[in-house]
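Service request form, structural biology core

Requester: graduate student, group of Dr. S.
Request type: structure prediction, single chain
Budget code: on file
Notes: please return the result as structure tokens.

Sequence provided:
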Amino acid sequence: MSEKDIIICRCEEVTYSNLKETAKKFQCTPRELKLRTRAGMGYCGGRTCRNAVDSIALESTERNESQITLKYQPPIRPVSFGKLGEVIE
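Core staff response, request fulfilled:
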């Protein structure tokens, strides 16, 4: 397996080469790279790939002081399946 074939975002199956090519072609910020490739937008919300996506975007573009790195947001509060299926009359 070559370095190009390494999957960075397992949820969306985005590879290292896909991220590098997109970042280079569009000179993406981390947020734009995420939106163009869907890396970090899967089930885990970027918990496993966020740092790698940030790094790839920032090494492919000039670093700007106002550039905001990616973040992930956990749910506001957990909801049980019982509450979701509850019938309110």
